[in-house]
Give the backbone structure.
Amino acid sequence: MSQKVTKAIFPVAGLGTRFLPATKSIPKEIMTLVDRPLIQYAIDEARAAGIEEFIFVTSRGKGALEDYFDHSHELEASLKARGKAELLKVLQATNMDSGAIAYVRQHKALGLGHAVWCARRLMAPDEPFAVLLTDDVILGEPPCLQQMIEAYAETGGSMVATMEVAPEKTSSYGVLDVAEDMGAIVRARGLVEKPPAGAAPSNLAVIGRYILAPTVMQNLHHTQEGSGGEIQLTDAIADELAAGRDVFGLRFRGQRYDCGSKAGFLQATVAFGLAREDLRDEFSEYLDDIRAATSRAAE
Ligand code: UTP
């Protein structure tokens, strides 16, 4: 029986250069899909999976992120006084319990592995933990992390969320070398970060959801710079395999949007806009019009 996972690390200390100039003053995680910041989607997913403690690895310029999680008493009182019950509910759903959130600082963006390692003192030495990258927004039922927690309850070890990508895309991801394919779950033989074109061991790419054995944090004490000159979480997970411990991949059910890229963010905006009952009709009519106008212009 695997140990219960109650802590999650949210590394949010990256520079977000792909969204400059916006990210000069707005943390990427506060950018909104329709009306909810990216971070809220990750928090909701973690809560649904039973996470109780939320650890943010932040950096300079991420103050807006901390403010976002403060209770907004004035706003709540004002909405209450004006009888805006629905909006009040929306606002209160973002409230976090006192003491449930911790912030640690990554002083230099040395890589995802380094960001996770910055949270080491908030972890018990024998405690498995989840890592969620807020760039990856995933529509899934049940939510992706919950699917992973359920699978992990059977497998133990460490588990990464995976999805099949086109062969020409593998060099943008961590990629699994598959030892055993059991359907939804695969057992890994190896794990390589951003393999050069044509050298990927499979087309099963790792995306931003992880359940990690406590030994991964120990591996990070020694992890050297890897792909892109950064300290890679993938390398610390691969060290588990070298030490004879299990790493699994889960082909999660759902749709993942890479909101760390402009194209992915735009796709997610359209998908989430169309998924909203209050916006769907007007928005899809607009999309139809714009498509018709574009194809007329192309003729
Ligand atoms: P990315 O590779 O997307 O980097 O990081 P980034 O800095 O956020 O964005 P670009 O590429 O410059 O546009 C993946 C995740 O790892 C975190 C990021 O915040 C993001 O959630 N990260 C990355 C850190 O917390 N620290 C780092 O040193 C690197």
About this structure: The chain has one domain: 7-260. The longest strand covers residues 185-193. Residues 280-298 form the longest helix (19 residues). The pocket of uridine 5'-triphosphate is lined by residues 11-18, 57, 106, 109-112, 114-115, 133-135, 260 (CB under 6 Å).
